[in-house]
Amino acid sequence: MGKVNITIDGVNIEAEDNLTVLEAAKQANIDIPTLCYLKKINKIGACRICLVEVKGARGLQAACSYPVSEGLVVRTNTKEIMDARRSTLELILSNHKKNCLSCSRNTDCELQALADRMGVGDVVYEGTAEDEIDDLSTSIVRDNSKCVLCRRCVAVCKNVQTVGAIDVAYRGMNSKITPAFNKSLGESNCINCGQCVAVCPVGALTIKYNIDRVWDAINNEEMHVVVQTAPAVRAALGEEFGLPMGEAVTGKMVAALRRMGFDKVFDTNTGADFTIMEEGTEFIERLKSGKNLPLITSCSPGWVKFAEHNFPELIPNLSSAKSPMSMYGALLKSYYAKKNNIDPSKIFVVAVMPCTAKKFECERPELSATGYPDIDAVITTVELAKMIKQSGIMFENLEDEMFDEPFGEASGAATIFGTSGGVMEAAIRTVTEVLENKSIDKIEYEEVRGNETIKEAELSIAGQKVKIAVVSGLGNARKLMELVRDGKVDYQFIEVMACPGGCIMGGGQPRKIVKEKAGIDVRGERRKALYNEDKRLPHRKSHQNPYVKQVYEEYLEKPGSEKAHHLLHTHYTER
Ligand code: SF4
Ligand code: SF4
Ligand code: SF4
User: Does pLDDT of 319 surpass 70?
Assistant: First the structure.
Protein backbone atom coordinates (compact mmCIF):
# COMPACT_ATOMS: atom_id res chain seq x y z
CA MET A 1 0.00 0.00 0.00
CA GLY A 2 1.46 3.34 -1.02
CA LYS A 3 0.80 6.92 0.06
CA VAL A 4 -0.44 9.95 -1.88
CA ASN A 5 -0.43 13.65 -1.07
CA ILE A 6 -3.80 15.36 -1.43
CA THR A 7 -5.42 18.62 -0.37
CA ILE A 8 -8.88 18.76 1.14
CA ASP A 9 -10.34 22.20 1.93
CA GLY A 10 -6.82 23.62 1.94
CA VAL A 11 -5.48 20.99 4.35
CA ASN A 12 -2.55 18.96 2.98
CA ILE A 13 -2.68 15.32 3.99
CA GLU A 14 -0.81 12.15 3.23
CA ALA A 15 -3.35 9.38 2.68
CA GLU A 16 -3.13 5.68 1.92
CA ASP A 17 -3.61 5.23 -1.82
CA ASN A 18 -6.50 2.75 -1.49
CA LEU A 19 -8.83 5.22 0.23
CA THR A 20 -11.73 7.18 -1.18
CA VAL A 21 -12.02 10.95 -0.74
CA LEU A 22 -14.65 10.37 1.98
CA GLU A 23 -12.31 8.13 3.97
CA ALA A 24 -9.29 10.40 3.49
CA ALA A 25 -11.27 13.47 4.56
CA LYS A 26 -11.58 11.98 8.07
CA GLN A 27 -7.80 12.43 8.40
CA ALA A 28 -8.32 16.14 7.86
CA ASN A 29 -11.09 16.06 10.51
CA ILE A 30 -13.75 16.63 7.88
CA ASP A 31 -16.94 14.61 8.21
CA ILE A 32 -18.56 14.52 4.75
CA PRO A 33 -22.26 13.67 5.20
CA THR A 34 -23.58 10.42 3.70
CA LEU A 35 -26.67 8.22 3.80
CA CYS A 36 -25.62 5.15 1.82
CA TYR A 37 -21.91 4.67 2.63
CA LEU A 38 -21.02 1.71 4.84
CA LYS A 39 -17.36 1.05 5.52
CA LYS A 40 -16.05 -1.96 3.52
CA ILE A 41 -19.64 -2.90 2.55
CA ASN A 42 -21.41 -0.19 0.52
CA LYS A 43 -19.49 2.43 -1.48
CA ILE A 44 -21.83 2.96 -4.39
CA GLY A 45 -22.48 6.70 -4.41
CA ALA A 46 -26.23 6.07 -4.57
CA CYS A 47 -27.58 8.77 -2.26
CA ARG A 48 -25.56 11.67 -3.81
CA ILE A 49 -25.31 13.37 -0.41
CA CYS A 50 -21.51 13.16 -0.17
CA LEU A 51 -20.96 15.35 -3.23
CA VAL A 52 -17.63 17.20 -3.38
CA GLU A 53 -15.73 19.29 -5.91
CA VAL A 54 -12.60 17.66 -7.36
CA LYS A 55 -10.27 20.03 -9.24
CA GLY A 56 -10.24 19.11 -12.92
CA ALA A 57 -13.25 16.76 -12.79
CA ARG A 58 -16.51 17.64 -14.56
CA GLY A 59 -19.39 18.25 -12.16
CA LEU A 60 -19.63 17.29 -8.49
CA GLN A 61 -18.39 13.84 -7.47
CA ALA A 62 -19.56 11.30 -4.88
CA ALA A 63 -16.78 11.31 -2.25
CA CYS A 64 -17.58 7.78 -1.05
CA SER A 65 -16.61 6.23 -4.38
CA TYR A 66 -13.99 8.71 -5.71
CA PRO A 67 -10.47 7.30 -5.21
CA VAL A 68 -7.63 9.48 -3.96
CA SER A 69 -4.62 10.03 -6.22
CA GLU A 70 -1.40 12.01 -6.07
CA GLY A 71 -2.00 15.77 -6.12
CA LEU A 72 -5.81 15.58 -5.83
CA VAL A 73 -7.40 18.87 -4.73
CA VAL A 74 -10.85 18.62 -3.18
CA ARG A 75 -13.36 21.13 -1.79
CA THR A 76 -16.17 19.86 0.42
CA ASN A 77 -18.01 22.98 1.53
CA THR A 78 -18.58 25.47 -1.30
CA LYS A 79 -22.01 27.07 -1.77
CA GLU A 80 -22.58 24.96 -4.88
CA ILE A 81 -21.89 21.78 -2.90
CA MET A 82 -24.14 22.81 0.00
CA ASP A 83 -26.98 23.74 -2.36
CA ALA A 84 -26.65 20.46 -4.29
CA ARG A 85 -26.70 18.40 -1.09
CA ARG A 86 -29.72 20.33 0.21
CA SER A 87 -31.63 19.82 -3.07
CA THR A 88 -30.86 16.09 -3.03
CA LEU A 89 -32.01 15.85 0.56
CA GLU A 90 -35.23 17.75 -0.19
CA LEU A 91 -35.95 15.32 -3.04
CA ILE A 92 -35.38 12.33 -0.75
CA LEU A 93 -37.62 13.86 1.92
CA SER A 94 -40.34 14.70 -0.59
CA ASN A 95 -40.86 11.01 -1.27
CA HIS A 96 -40.67 10.00 2.37
CA LYS A 97 -43.51 9.46 4.79
CA LYS A 98 -42.57 11.94 7.49
CA ASN A 99 -44.38 10.69 10.58
CA CYS A 100 -41.34 11.07 12.79
CA LEU A 101 -43.28 11.25 16.05
CA SER A 102 -44.76 7.78 15.63
CA CYS A 103 -41.71 6.29 13.88
CA SER A 104 -39.69 3.85 15.98
CA ARG A 105 -36.51 5.47 14.68
CA ASN A 106 -37.46 8.94 15.91
CA THR A 107 -34.34 10.62 17.45
CA ASP A 108 -32.18 7.73 16.17
CA CYS A 109 -32.54 8.39 12.45
CA GLU A 110 -29.71 9.33 10.11
CA LEU A 111 -32.10 11.16 7.76
CA GLN A 112 -33.52 13.26 10.58
CA ALA A 113 -30.00 14.06 11.80
CA LEU A 114 -28.93 14.97 8.27
CA ALA A 115 -31.91 17.28 7.73
CA ASP A 116 -31.04 19.00 10.98
CA ARG A 117 -27.37 19.28 10.04
CA MET A 118 -28.15 20.65 6.57
CA GLY A 119 -30.79 23.06 7.87
CA VAL A 120 -33.56 21.47 5.80
CA GLY A 121 -36.91 22.06 7.49
CA ASP A 122 -39.97 22.46 5.32
CA VAL A 123 -39.98 20.25 2.27
CA VAL A 124 -40.88 22.13 -0.88
CA TYR A 125 -41.81 19.17 -3.09
CA GLU A 126 -44.45 16.59 -2.33
CA GLY A 127 -43.87 13.10 -3.69
CA THR A 128 -45.98 9.99 -3.87
CA ALA A 129 -44.82 7.97 -0.85
CA GLU A 130 -47.56 5.49 -0.08
CA ASP A 131 -47.92 3.16 2.85
CA GLU A 132 -46.49 -0.20 1.92
CA ILE A 133 -45.94 -2.06 5.13
CA ASP A 134 -44.83 -5.69 5.26
CA ASP A 135 -45.20 -7.06 8.77
CA LEU A 136 -45.61 -10.79 8.14
CA SER A 137 -42.08 -11.60 9.31
CA THR A 138 -41.75 -12.63 12.97
CA SER A 139 -38.81 -10.31 13.41
CA ILE A 140 -38.75 -7.38 11.00
CA VAL A 141 -41.18 -4.77 9.69
CA ARG A 142 -40.56 -3.21 6.26
CA ASP A 143 -42.01 0.18 5.38
CA ASN A 144 -40.96 1.14 1.87
CA SER A 145 -42.53 4.59 2.21
CA LYS A 146 -39.52 5.48 4.37
CA CYS A 147 -36.86 3.84 2.21
CA VAL A 148 -34.18 6.17 0.81
CA LEU A 149 -32.86 3.48 -1.56
CA CYS A 150 -29.39 3.58 -0.05
CA ARG A 151 -29.02 -0.20 -0.65
CA ARG A 152 -27.10 -0.77 2.59
CA CYS A 153 -29.53 -3.58 3.48
CA VAL A 154 -29.06 -5.26 0.11
CA ALA A 155 -25.26 -5.14 0.45
CA VAL A 156 -25.31 -6.59 3.98
CA CYS A 157 -27.82 -9.32 3.15
CA LYS A 158 -26.19 -10.32 -0.13
CA ASN A 159 -22.47 -9.75 0.46
CA VAL A 160 -21.95 -10.16 4.21
CA GLN A 161 -24.60 -12.75 5.05
CA THR A 162 -24.85 -14.30 1.55
CA VAL A 163 -28.58 -14.75 2.02
CA GLY A 164 -29.83 -12.40 -0.71
CA ALA A 165 -33.36 -12.25 0.69
CA ILE A 166 -33.88 -8.68 -0.60
CA ASP A 167 -32.83 -6.73 -3.66
CA VAL A 168 -33.67 -3.65 -5.70
CA ALA A 169 -36.56 -4.27 -8.09
CA TYR A 170 -37.88 -2.07 -10.93
CA ARG A 171 -36.17 1.04 -12.32
CA GLY A 172 -35.98 4.79 -11.83
CA MET A 173 -38.78 6.32 -9.76
CA ASN A 174 -40.36 2.86 -9.39
CA SER A 175 -37.27 1.31 -7.76
CA LYS A 176 -37.92 -0.41 -4.49
CA ILE A 177 -36.37 -2.88 -2.06
CA THR A 178 -38.23 -6.16 -1.92
CA PRO A 179 -37.84 -9.92 -1.60
CA ALA A 180 -38.17 -11.86 -4.88
CA PHE A 181 -41.60 -11.74 -6.58
CA ASN A 182 -42.72 -8.96 -4.23
CA LYS A 183 -43.27 -11.50 -1.48
CA SER A 184 -43.24 -10.69 2.21
CA LEU A 185 -39.95 -11.05 4.07
CA GLY A 186 -41.76 -13.65 6.18
CA GLU A 187 -42.30 -15.79 3.07
CA SER A 188 -38.73 -15.47 1.82
CA ASN A 189 -35.45 -17.19 2.70
CA CYS A 190 -34.69 -14.37 5.18
CA ILE A 191 -33.08 -15.84 8.30
CA ASN A 192 -34.23 -12.95 10.53
CA CYS A 193 -30.72 -11.90 11.58
CA GLY A 194 -31.65 -8.21 11.58
CA GLN A 195 -28.30 -7.13 10.11
CA CYS A 196 -30.27 -5.14 7.52
CA VAL A 197 -32.15 -3.36 10.31
CA ALA A 198 -28.86 -2.58 12.02
CA VAL A 199 -27.60 -0.69 8.95
CA CYS A 200 -30.81 0.92 7.66
CA PRO A 201 -30.33 4.65 8.22
CA VAL A 202 -34.06 5.29 8.57
CA GLY A 203 -37.27 3.64 9.72
CA ALA A 204 -37.74 1.56 6.56
CA LEU A 205 -36.53 -1.62 8.25
CA THR A 206 -37.30 -1.95 11.92
CA ILE A 207 -37.52 -4.60 14.62
CA LYS A 208 -40.99 -6.07 15.11
CA TYR A 209 -41.79 -4.96 18.64
CA ASN A 210 -43.44 -7.17 21.29
CA ILE A 211 -43.48 -4.39 23.87
CA ASP A 212 -47.28 -4.20 24.21
CA ARG A 213 -47.63 -7.98 24.65
CA VAL A 214 -45.12 -7.90 27.47
CA TRP A 215 -46.80 -4.96 29.23
CA ASP A 216 -50.16 -6.79 28.91
CA ALA A 217 -48.66 -9.90 30.56
CA ILE A 218 -47.06 -7.87 33.36
CA ASN A 219 -50.40 -6.16 34.03
CA ASN A 220 -52.32 -9.44 34.03
CA GLU A 221 -52.51 -10.43 37.70
CA GLU A 222 -53.32 -14.04 36.86
CA MET A 223 -49.97 -14.55 35.16
CA HIS A 224 -46.62 -15.29 36.80
CA VAL A 225 -44.34 -13.32 34.51
CA VAL A 226 -40.71 -14.37 34.44
CA VAL A 227 -37.98 -12.60 32.49
CA GLN A 228 -34.61 -14.02 31.41
CA THR A 229 -31.84 -11.92 29.88
CA ALA A 230 -29.19 -13.10 27.43
CA PRO A 231 -25.50 -12.38 28.13
CA ALA A 232 -25.01 -9.90 25.27
CA VAL A 233 -27.83 -7.65 26.53
CA ARG A 234 -25.87 -6.55 29.60
CA ALA A 235 -22.89 -5.67 27.39
CA ALA A 236 -24.84 -3.07 25.37
CA LEU A 237 -27.95 -1.91 27.26
CA GLY A 238 -26.02 0.85 29.04
CA GLU A 239 -25.29 2.48 25.64
CA GLU A 240 -28.98 3.44 25.40
CA PHE A 241 -28.61 5.43 28.63
CA GLY A 242 -25.30 7.15 27.86
CA LEU A 243 -23.27 4.87 30.16
CA PRO A 244 -19.66 4.05 29.19
CA MET A 245 -19.17 1.24 26.69
CA GLY A 246 -17.20 -1.81 27.72
CA GLU A 247 -18.96 -2.18 31.09
CA ALA A 248 -21.65 -4.74 31.73
CA VAL A 249 -24.74 -3.19 33.35
CA THR A 250 -26.03 -6.47 34.78
CA GLY A 251 -26.98 -5.14 38.23
CA LYS A 252 -28.80 -2.04 36.93
CA MET A 253 -30.63 -4.16 34.34
CA VAL A 254 -31.89 -6.53 37.04
CA ALA A 255 -33.00 -3.59 39.20
CA ALA A 256 -34.87 -2.04 36.25
CA LEU A 257 -36.63 -5.31 35.36
CA ARG A 258 -37.78 -5.71 38.96
CA ARG A 259 -39.17 -2.16 39.00
CA MET A 260 -41.00 -2.82 35.72
CA GLY A 261 -43.04 -5.47 37.52
CA PHE A 262 -41.64 -8.86 36.49
CA ASP A 263 -42.36 -11.49 39.15
CA LYS A 264 -38.95 -13.10 38.76
CA VAL A 265 -35.78 -11.87 37.11
CA PHE A 266 -33.59 -14.72 35.90
CA ASP A 267 -30.46 -15.07 33.81
CA THR A 268 -30.38 -16.85 30.42
CA ASN A 269 -26.80 -17.68 31.39
CA THR A 270 -28.23 -20.41 33.62
CA GLY A 271 -29.80 -21.86 30.47
CA ALA A 272 -26.40 -21.55 28.76
CA ASP A 273 -24.85 -23.69 31.50
CA PHE A 274 -27.46 -26.37 30.75
CA THR A 275 -26.71 -26.04 27.02
CA ILE A 276 -23.03 -26.72 27.73
CA MET A 277 -23.92 -29.76 29.83
CA GLU A 278 -26.09 -31.22 27.06
CA GLU A 279 -24.01 -30.14 24.07
CA GLY A 280 -20.76 -31.13 25.82
CA THR A 281 -22.18 -34.59 26.51
CA GLU A 282 -23.31 -34.85 22.89
CA PHE A 283 -19.80 -33.89 21.75
CA ILE A 284 -18.13 -36.47 23.96
CA GLU A 285 -20.51 -39.17 22.65
CA ARG A 286 -19.87 -38.19 19.00
CA LEU A 287 -16.13 -38.04 19.63
CA LYS A 288 -16.24 -41.60 20.98
CA SER A 289 -18.48 -42.97 18.22
CA GLY A 290 -17.02 -40.89 15.40
CA LYS A 291 -20.56 -40.25 14.11
CA ASN A 292 -21.88 -36.93 12.79
CA LEU A 293 -18.63 -35.04 13.23
CA PRO A 294 -17.98 -32.19 13.22
CA LEU A 295 -20.55 -31.29 15.86
CA ILE A 296 -21.84 -27.85 14.87
CA THR A 297 -23.38 -25.51 17.45
CA SER A 298 -27.05 -24.63 17.07
CA CYS A 299 -27.76 -21.82 19.53
CA SER A 300 -27.78 -19.07 16.86
CA PRO A 301 -31.27 -19.19 15.29
CA GLY A 302 -30.20 -17.21 12.23
CA TRP A 303 -27.50 -19.79 11.54
CA VAL A 304 -29.91 -22.71 12.13
CA LYS A 305 -32.42 -21.39 9.56
CA PHE A 306 -29.56 -20.64 7.13
CA ALA A 307 -28.39 -24.27 7.51
CA GLU A 308 -31.93 -25.57 6.99
CA HIS A 309 -32.14 -23.60 3.71
CA ASN A 310 -28.61 -24.02 2.40
CA PHE A 311 -26.91 -27.03 4.00
CA PRO A 312 -29.61 -29.65 4.65
CA GLU A 313 -26.98 -32.39 4.32
CA LEU A 314 -25.30 -30.98 7.45
CA ILE A 315 -28.47 -31.03 9.61
CA PRO A 316 -27.35 -34.28 11.33
CA ASN A 317 -24.17 -32.46 12.38
CA LEU A 318 -26.06 -29.70 14.19
CA SER A 319 -26.20 -30.13 17.94
CA SER A 320 -29.70 -31.22 18.96
CA ALA A 321 -29.32 -29.25 22.21
CA LYS A 322 -31.79 -26.37 22.35
CA SER A 323 -30.46 -22.84 22.67
CA PRO A 324 -29.98 -21.46 26.21
CA MET A 325 -33.15 -19.37 25.82
CA SER A 326 -35.35 -22.33 24.90
CA MET A 327 -33.77 -24.76 27.36
CA TYR A 328 -34.38 -22.28 30.12
CA GLY A 329 -38.00 -21.75 29.06
CA ALA A 330 -38.61 -25.53 29.06
CA LEU A 331 -37.14 -25.83 32.57
CA LEU A 332 -39.22 -22.90 33.83
CA LYS A 333 -42.41 -24.54 32.61
CA SER A 334 -41.51 -27.96 34.04
CA TYR A 335 -39.05 -28.15 36.96
CA TYR A 336 -39.57 -24.57 38.22
CA ALA A 337 -43.36 -24.77 37.86
CA LYS A 338 -43.48 -28.06 39.81
CA LYS A 339 -41.07 -26.94 42.51
CA ASN A 340 -42.98 -23.72 43.13
CA ASN A 341 -46.42 -25.22 42.66
CA ILE A 342 -47.34 -22.91 39.77
CA ASP A 343 -49.64 -24.00 36.93
CA PRO A 344 -47.35 -23.86 33.84
CA SER A 345 -50.22 -22.43 31.81
CA LYS A 346 -49.99 -19.37 34.10
CA ILE A 347 -46.28 -18.86 33.55
CA PHE A 348 -45.40 -16.26 30.91
CA VAL A 349 -41.73 -16.34 29.97
CA VAL A 350 -40.21 -13.22 28.43
CA ALA A 351 -36.74 -13.50 26.91
CA VAL A 352 -34.64 -10.35 26.43
CA MET A 353 -32.30 -11.05 23.54
CA PRO A 354 -29.74 -9.17 21.41
CA CYS A 355 -31.22 -10.99 18.45
CA THR A 356 -34.16 -10.49 16.11
CA ALA A 357 -33.96 -14.14 14.95
CA LYS A 358 -34.87 -15.29 18.47
CA LYS A 359 -38.40 -14.03 17.69
CA PHE A 360 -38.53 -16.66 14.94
CA GLU A 361 -37.04 -19.35 17.18
CA CYS A 362 -39.68 -18.60 19.82
CA GLU A 363 -42.42 -19.48 17.33
CA ARG A 364 -40.99 -22.84 16.23
CA PRO A 365 -43.77 -25.32 17.11
CA GLU A 366 -41.25 -28.02 18.04
CA LEU A 367 -40.01 -25.90 20.96
CA SER A 368 -42.86 -26.82 23.31
CA ALA A 369 -42.00 -30.14 24.93
CA THR A 370 -43.98 -29.28 28.10
CA GLY A 371 -47.16 -28.75 26.07
CA TYR A 372 -46.59 -24.98 26.31
CA PRO A 373 -44.29 -22.82 24.22
CA ASP A 374 -40.86 -22.69 25.83
CA ILE A 375 -40.92 -18.91 25.44
CA ASP A 376 -43.97 -16.64 25.25
CA ALA A 377 -42.40 -13.40 24.01
CA VAL A 378 -38.98 -12.23 22.87
CA ILE A 379 -37.97 -8.61 23.15
CA THR A 380 -34.63 -7.21 22.02
CA THR A 381 -32.18 -5.04 23.94
CA VAL A 382 -33.56 -2.03 22.05
CA GLU A 383 -37.13 -2.87 23.10
CA LEU A 384 -36.07 -3.34 26.72
CA ALA A 385 -34.43 0.10 26.69
CA LYS A 386 -37.66 1.59 25.32
CA MET A 387 -39.69 -0.12 28.07
CA ILE A 388 -37.34 1.15 30.77
CA LYS A 389 -37.72 4.67 29.37
CA GLN A 390 -41.52 4.28 29.19
CA SER A 391 -41.47 3.30 32.88
CA GLY A 392 -39.69 6.52 33.84
CA ILE A 393 -36.89 4.53 35.48
CA MET A 394 -33.68 6.56 35.79
CA PHE A 395 -31.52 3.63 34.71
CA GLU A 396 -28.17 5.34 35.10
CA ASN A 397 -28.82 6.05 38.82
CA LEU A 398 -29.99 2.55 39.80
CA GLU A 399 -28.09 0.58 42.44
CA ASP A 400 -27.01 -2.90 41.33
CA GLU A 401 -29.28 -5.79 42.25
CA MET A 402 -28.82 -9.56 41.91
CA PHE A 403 -30.82 -12.02 39.79
CA ASP A 404 -33.44 -14.01 41.70
CA GLU A 405 -32.02 -17.14 43.29
CA PRO A 406 -31.54 -19.97 42.73
CA PHE A 407 -32.59 -19.90 39.07
CA GLY A 408 -30.39 -16.85 38.45
CA GLU A 409 -27.12 -18.59 39.34
CA ALA A 410 -24.79 -18.85 36.33
CA SER A 411 -21.13 -19.35 35.44
CA GLY A 412 -18.65 -17.07 33.70
CA ALA A 413 -18.49 -19.61 30.87
CA ALA A 414 -22.15 -18.86 30.15
CA THR A 415 -21.49 -15.11 30.08
CA ILE A 416 -19.04 -15.37 27.18
CA PHE A 417 -21.69 -17.10 25.04
CA GLY A 418 -22.50 -13.54 23.96
CA THR A 419 -19.37 -13.15 21.84
CA SER A 420 -18.02 -15.15 18.90
CA GLY A 421 -15.85 -17.98 20.29
CA GLY A 422 -17.59 -17.95 23.67
CA VAL A 423 -19.71 -21.06 23.19
CA MET A 424 -16.66 -23.01 22.03
CA GLU A 425 -14.57 -21.78 24.97
CA ALA A 426 -17.33 -22.61 27.45
CA ALA A 427 -17.77 -26.10 25.97
CA ILE A 428 -14.03 -26.82 25.97
CA ARG A 429 -13.74 -25.74 29.64
CA THR A 430 -16.28 -28.43 30.56
CA VAL A 431 -15.45 -31.15 28.04
CA THR A 432 -11.74 -31.05 28.96
CA GLU A 433 -12.43 -31.45 32.70
CA VAL A 434 -14.96 -34.22 32.14
CA LEU A 435 -12.70 -36.20 29.79
CA GLU A 436 -9.53 -35.67 31.80
CA ASN A 437 -11.37 -36.13 35.10
CA LYS A 438 -9.41 -33.38 36.84
CA SER A 439 -9.56 -29.63 37.42
CA ILE A 440 -7.93 -27.57 34.66
CA ASP A 441 -6.38 -24.20 35.53
CA LYS A 442 -5.90 -22.84 32.00
CA ILE A 443 -9.42 -21.92 31.00
CA GLU A 444 -8.95 -18.89 28.73
CA TYR A 445 -8.57 -19.97 25.11
CA GLU A 446 -7.03 -17.04 23.23
CA GLU A 447 -7.13 -19.15 20.04
CA VAL A 448 -10.91 -18.62 19.76
CA ARG A 449 -11.00 -14.96 20.85
CA GLY A 450 -10.55 -11.82 18.75
CA ASN A 451 -11.72 -10.39 15.44
CA GLU A 452 -10.59 -12.96 12.88
CA THR A 453 -13.49 -14.16 10.75
CA ILE A 454 -12.55 -17.84 10.99
CA LYS A 455 -10.57 -18.95 14.05
CA GLU A 456 -9.20 -22.46 14.38
CA ALA A 457 -7.09 -24.46 16.80
CA GLU A 458 -5.89 -27.96 17.49
CA LEU A 459 -6.28 -28.92 21.13
CA SER A 460 -5.08 -31.95 23.01
CA ILE A 461 -7.86 -33.28 25.24
CA ALA A 462 -7.25 -36.46 27.26
CA GLY A 463 -4.49 -37.44 24.86
CA GLN A 464 -6.69 -36.95 21.81
CA LYS A 465 -6.20 -34.25 19.15
CA VAL A 466 -9.35 -32.18 18.70
CA LYS A 467 -9.58 -29.69 15.83
CA ILE A 468 -12.00 -26.84 16.41
CA ALA A 469 -13.16 -23.85 14.38
CA VAL A 470 -15.13 -20.73 15.22
CA VAL A 471 -16.86 -18.62 12.60
CA SER A 472 -19.24 -15.68 12.65
CA GLY A 473 -21.14 -13.94 9.86
CA LEU A 474 -22.99 -16.17 7.43
CA GLY A 475 -20.82 -15.37 4.41
CA ASN A 476 -17.86 -16.76 6.39
CA ALA A 477 -19.96 -19.68 7.63
CA ARG A 478 -20.97 -20.51 4.05
CA LYS A 479 -17.30 -20.73 2.98
CA LEU A 480 -16.46 -23.00 5.93
CA MET A 481 -19.52 -25.21 5.50
CA GLU A 482 -18.75 -25.76 1.82
CA LEU A 483 -15.36 -27.12 2.87
CA VAL A 484 -16.99 -29.32 5.54
CA ARG A 485 -19.60 -30.60 3.10
CA ASP A 486 -16.95 -31.39 0.49
CA GLY A 487 -14.77 -33.20 3.05
CA LYS A 488 -11.89 -30.74 2.61
CA VAL A 489 -11.45 -30.03 6.36
CA ASP A 490 -11.47 -32.37 9.35
CA TYR A 491 -12.71 -30.39 12.32
CA GLN A 492 -14.46 -32.17 15.19
CA PHE A 493 -16.30 -29.18 16.65
CA ILE A 494 -17.43 -25.92 14.99
CA GLU A 495 -19.11 -22.89 16.52
CA VAL A 496 -21.20 -20.76 14.16
CA MET A 497 -22.83 -17.41 14.96
CA ALA A 498 -24.96 -15.71 12.31
CA CYS A 499 -24.00 -12.15 13.21
CA PRO A 500 -20.43 -10.95 12.52
CA GLY A 501 -18.80 -10.89 15.98
CA GLY A 502 -21.55 -12.95 17.60
CA CYS A 503 -24.58 -11.93 19.66
CA ILE A 504 -22.99 -8.71 20.95
CA MET A 505 -23.48 -7.43 17.37
CA GLY A 506 -26.98 -8.89 16.97
CA GLY A 507 -29.73 -7.14 15.04
CA GLY A 508 -31.58 -6.30 18.28
CA GLN A 509 -28.69 -4.45 19.89
CA PRO A 510 -28.40 -0.63 20.10
CA ARG A 511 -27.38 0.81 16.76
CA LYS A 512 -23.66 0.86 16.10
CA ILE A 513 -23.29 2.81 12.83
CA VAL A 514 -22.93 6.30 14.27
CA LYS A 515 -20.58 5.06 17.01
CA GLU A 516 -18.41 3.20 14.50
CA LYS A 517 -18.34 6.27 12.29
CA ALA A 518 -16.97 8.16 15.29
CA GLY A 519 -14.11 5.62 15.47
CA ILE A 520 -15.41 3.54 18.42
CA ASP A 521 -14.58 -0.18 18.37
CA VAL A 522 -18.11 -1.24 19.31
CA ARG A 523 -17.45 -4.96 18.96
CA GLY A 524 -14.25 -4.80 21.03
CA GLU A 525 -15.89 -2.76 23.81
CA ARG A 526 -18.89 -5.08 24.14
CA ARG A 527 -16.65 -8.14 24.05
CA LYS A 528 -14.51 -6.64 26.83
CA ALA A 529 -17.60 -6.21 29.02
CA LEU A 530 -18.33 -9.96 28.79
CA TYR A 531 -14.77 -11.20 29.32
CA ASN A 532 -14.47 -8.96 32.40
CA GLU A 533 -17.74 -10.29 33.79
CA ASP A 534 -16.50 -13.87 33.26
CA LYS A 535 -13.36 -13.06 35.28
CA ARG A 536 -15.24 -11.71 38.28
CA LEU A 537 -17.71 -14.60 38.70
CA PRO A 538 -17.06 -17.25 41.38
CA HIS A 539 -17.73 -20.17 39.02
CA ARG A 540 -16.24 -20.04 35.51
CA LYS A 541 -17.20 -23.50 34.25
CA SER A 542 -20.76 -24.57 33.49
CA HIS A 543 -20.51 -27.90 35.31
CA GLN A 544 -19.50 -26.07 38.51
CA ASN A 545 -22.79 -24.17 38.67
CA PRO A 546 -24.31 -25.59 41.90
CA TYR A 547 -27.82 -24.98 40.67
CA VAL A 548 -27.23 -26.95 37.48
CA LYS A 549 -25.98 -29.86 39.60
CA GLN A 550 -29.09 -29.64 41.78
CA VAL A 551 -31.50 -29.73 38.83
CA TYR A 552 -29.78 -32.81 37.36
CA GLU A 553 -29.85 -34.54 40.76
CA GLU A 554 -33.46 -33.70 41.54
CA TYR A 555 -35.06 -33.83 38.11
CA LEU A 556 -33.12 -34.47 34.94
CA GLU A 557 -31.03 -37.38 36.30
CA LYS A 558 -27.92 -36.74 34.19
CA PRO A 559 -26.84 -34.88 31.06
CA GLY A 560 -28.13 -36.66 27.99
CA SER A 561 -30.77 -38.64 29.94
CA GLU A 562 -34.10 -39.48 28.33
CA LYS A 563 -35.80 -36.76 30.32
CA ALA A 564 -33.11 -34.24 29.40
CA HIS A 565 -33.53 -35.20 25.75
CA HIS A 566 -37.29 -34.78 25.89
CA LEU A 567 -37.11 -31.32 27.45
CA LEU A 568 -33.81 -29.86 26.31
CA HIS A 569 -33.24 -31.15 22.78
CA THR A 570 -34.91 -30.41 19.45
CA HIS A 571 -34.76 -31.22 15.72
CA TYR A 572 -34.41 -29.26 12.48
CA THR A 573 -36.19 -29.29 9.13
CA GLU A 574 -34.93 -28.96 5.56
CA ARG A 575 -36.50 -25.84 4.00
S1 SF4 B 1 -37.37 7.41 9.16
FE2 SF4 B 1 -36.56 9.15 10.21
S3 SF4 B 1 -37.25 10.92 9.04
FE4 SF4 B 1 -38.50 9.17 8.44
S5 SF4 B 1 -40.29 9.23 9.76
FE6 SF4 B 1 -38.80 7.92 10.76
S7 SF4 B 1 -37.70 9.28 12.13
FE8 SF4 B 1 -38.77 10.56 10.66
S1 SF4 C 1 -32.82 -10.16 8.39
FE2 SF4 C 1 -30.84 -10.90 7.62
S3 SF4 C 1 -31.43 -12.39 6.08
FE4 SF4 C 1 -33.26 -11.19 6.47
S5 SF4 C 1 -33.24 -9.57 4.94
FE6 SF4 C 1 -32.20 -8.78 6.74
S7 SF4 C 1 -30.02 -9.19 6.42
FE8 SF4 C 1 -31.19 -10.47 4.98
S1 SF4 D 1 -34.57 -0.36 3.44
FE2 SF4 D 1 -33.21 0.99 4.61
S3 SF4 D 1 -31.17 0.18 4.21
FE4 SF4 D 1 -32.51 -0.68 2.67
S5 SF4 D 1 -32.34 0.67 0.91
FE6 SF4 D 1 -34.11 1.36 2.09
S7 SF4 D 1 -33.30 2.91 3.49
FE8 SF4 D 1 -31.55 1.80 2.69
Answer: yes
Exactly one of 137, 145, 319, 542 is catalytic; which is it?
319
Alpha-helical regions (H) of 206-312: 211-218, 231-234, 250-260, 268-289, 301-310
In the chain, the number of structural domains is 3
pLDDT of the residue at 173: 78
Q: Whose CA is nearest to atom 6 of ligand 2?
A: 196
146 CB under 6 A from ligand 1?
yes
Rounded alpha-carbon distances, angstroms, from residue 344 to 217, 228, 230, 324, 333? 14, 16, 22, 19, 5
Range of the domain at 26: 3-77
Q: Ligand 3, residues 35, 132, 148: which to mutate, most atoms within 8 A of Cβ?
A: 148
524-560 pLDDT tens trace: 999 999 999 999 998 998 888 999 999 999 999 999 9
Looking at the CA of residue 106, tell me the nearest atom of ligand 1.
7
Q: Are 111 and 93 in contact (CB under 8 A)?
A: yes
Strand ranges for 441-531 from DSSP E: 454-461, 464-472, 493-497
Residue 145 lies in a domain: yes
**Mean local confidence (pLDDT), 256-265:** 98
Ligand 3 centroid vs 197 CA: distance in angstroms? Answer: 8
CA distance 452 to 430: 24
- Answer yes or no: is pLDDT of 72 > 80: yes
Residues 427 and 280 sit within 8 Å (Cβ to Cβ): yes
Are 342 and 476 members of one domain? yes
Per-residue pLDDT for 482 more than 90? yes
Residue 129 is part of a domain; what is its CATH number? 3.30.70.20
Last residue of a domain, one of 77, 99, 132: 77
At 28, which CATH number? 3.10.20.740
- Report, as an integer, the average pLDDT of 372-387: 98
* 111 located within any domain: yes
Q: Are residues 299 and 159 in the same domain?
A: no
Q: How confident is residue 375, by pLDDT bands cut at 50, 70 and 90?
A: very high
Please check whether residue 574 lies inside any domain of the structure. Answer: no
The residue nearest atom 3 of ligand 1, judged by CA position, is 112
> Of 177, 207, 237, which one is at a domain's C-terminal end?
207
